[in-house]
Amino acid sequence: MGRAAKLAMGSLAVAMVVLAIKGAAWWVTGSVALLADALESIVNVAAACAALVAVHLSATPPDANHPYGHAKAEYFSAVLEGVLIVVAALLILREAWGAIWAPSAPDMPGPGLALSVLATTINGVWAWWLLREGRRLRSPALVADGRHLVSDVVTSVGVVAGVGAVALTGVLWLDPLLAALTAVNILVSGGRLLRESVGGLMDEAVEPALLARIRCLVSQEAAGALEAHDLRTRHSGRTTFVEFHLVVPGEMRVAEAHDICDRIEVALKAELETAVITIHVEPEMKAKHQGVLVL
């Protein structure tokens, strides 16, 4: 089992533990805000299940039907997580709306808040670790899960502060108000996640900083060539695809042009770790006098 799959399994285990703790916090208090927090944890469990399946599928080697591999499965997982986040937010808004018209004081706020703080601490530590390892492994599913947990932590901190304020001040409408604010925060998080995940499915180009680095490496390593044009890039899960046309002098031998391509590929793979590079060699009459000029 790979590192990413082990992290995905750990995420599922943590999500189930946190859900149980948050459910207990809501059960002892009856707080609508804590119920909203628990509902988001149900989404965490579902998202962790989807991430586990996606990470396992994305690690499947390329086959005849999928010659480019299965890495995009992780984007589907991230899209599903975004949809689940939006659904959870709508459910929370529904609960908050009903509670606004019939607010009630939370029971046993002390034990409930203690349980919520425990769950938030577990979530915070795991979110940090998941984001760190997800970025290192270039796993969209793990990074999406980590970002969602960060949003959950921020929400939980606000909920704990608000329920504590209700207990101290007796202002009952603060509880459903906090639940509604929680839902809005979750909606923003879900919308951002959906946009990024759909961008991966639509083959968006790599981020500007990485694109500039790729152009720089091509320019530095292509000594002997004239220019590189029609540079195209995209991410597919942990793999980055780079393709471009390399213009060389017309009298250059095939072996010499091949050596230039090898140097470029070695440099790009050292930078990108997992990369698939396609270089189309052209004679100088095909030069466009634009794109990447060779230093």
UniProtKB/TrEMBL annotation:
Listed transmembrane segments: 12-36, 42-61, 73-93, 113-131, 152-171
Q: In what residue span(s) does the Cation efflux protein transmembrane domain sit?
A: 11-202
Where is it mostly found?
membrane
Stated membrane topology is:
Multi-pass membrane protein
The keyword Lipid metabolism is assigned to this record: no
Stretches assigned to the Cation efflux protein cytoplasmic domain: 210-284
Pfam families in the record: Cation_efflux (PF01545), ZT_dimer (PF16916)
Q: What is this protein called?
A: Cation diffusion facilitator family transporter
What is the originating organism of this protein?
Teichococcus globiformis
Q: Lineage from the top down?
A: Bacteria, Pseudomonadati, Pseudomonadota, Alphaproteobacteria, Acetobacterales
